Amino acid sequence: MSDRPIDSGLLSPALASPTPKRRRFAEPQKFLPIIFVVCTIIGLWAIYVVCHLLPLLQMGAWKPLGPVDEKVRTRGLQQFAIFHYITIMFVICYLRSILTNPGSIPENDLQWEYLPEDGRHPSNWVPMGLQEMKKTGMRRHCKWCGKYKPDRCHHCRVCKTCILKMDHHCPWIYNCVGFANYKFFFLLLFYSALDCHFIVWTMLESLKRCIDKPETPFATMFFTLFGKTLAFFLSVLITLFFGFHNWLMLKAMTTIEFCEKSWPKKEGESGRGYEISIYDAGALGNVRAILGDNILLWFFPCSRPSGDGLTFVSEETRLTKDMESGKGIRRRTHQKAQRVQFQNRYGYSPTPFPR
Description:
It is a single chain. This protein has helices at 32-57, 70-99, 182-202, 204-212, 218-251, 255-262, 282-291, 318-324, 332-346; strands spanning 141-142, 147-148, 154-156, 161-163, 168-170, 175-177. The protein is mainly alpha-helical. The chain has one domain (28-346). It has a two-stranded antiparallel ribbon with strand order 1-2. The chain has a two-stranded antiparallel ribbon with strand order 3-4. A two-stranded antiparallel sheet has the order 5-6. A hairpin with a 4-residue loop joins β1 and β2 (147-148).
C-alpha cells in the first residue's frame, strides 16, 4: 500500500475529514471593530459627563461663585443616575454578546453525526420534530463540520463552525449571533438606542447654554456639538436596526430566514412570504422565545429562553396547528416511507437515538 497521504479533495465531502474548528479570538486584527466601539462608548461617556452632567451638578470648573441652584442640581442627579444605569446595562449586554458562545451542534452525538449510506447505518433517519429538509427529502448536513444540521442551523465561514439558530455574524462583537446569545444582542440594541436617545434629548439644554453664552470655551462648544451629533447619528442607525429585529422577533424569523424569503428561488417566483413562518408561536410566544419565559427578567441580561437550540417545534407553533388541521406541512409520509424502506432492507425498525 502506498504511503502517500490521500488527498481529501478527492473524497466526497461526507468522507473527507471535517475542517478543524477555529479557536475563538485567534485573529487579533478582528478586534479592531470592538476597539472602535469601545473608543466610541468611552468618548460619548466622557463628553456627556464633562460637557453636560458636571455643569448641571455645578461641580469642578462649573461650580458657581454664588449659591447652588438646587433645582438644576436635582435634575442633574436624576440624569446622572438614569444615564449610568442604561450605560452599565449596555456594557454588560455588549460583553455577554461577545463572550457567550452562540451554540453549536453537540459533539459525539449519534443523532447529529453525519453517517454516509454505507449499508451499515440509517444515514437519513429523521429525528422527531425536524422540519428543514433538502428538496430531495434528505436531511441537511454540513460538509465542513461533518454533521447533520438541526433546524435553523447554518455554517459560519468566519467562525468555521455551525451555529444553532444562526441570525448573522456580527463583526462588531467578533462573534456570531445565535441561539445562546441572541437575547444579549437584542438587549444590546435596546440599551444602545436608549442611551443614544437619552444623550440627544437631554443635551439640548447644554447646547442651548453654549449658544446663549458666547463666553463658553471653544472646546466645550465643539465637544458638546460633536457629542450630540454623533449620538443623533448613532441613534437613527441603531433604532432602525433595533426596529428591524423587533419585526423579526414578532414574525419568528432570523435574519438569514428573512433573506431567504426575500430572494426568489426561481425565475418569476416571488420570494416575499414574510407572513408565513412554521416557527410562529403567536406574538407572546415569539417574544418569549427571544427574551425568556419570565416576563420580569425580559430586560435583564440573564434568564435566556428555554430550549436546547436543536428543536423548535412545540404545541404552540403554527406548524403543529397546521398538522392538526390536516394541512400536512410536516412530511410524515416521508418519515413513514423511510421507516418502511429501512425495515425492508434491514429486517427491523430503527430505534430513535437518545437525545
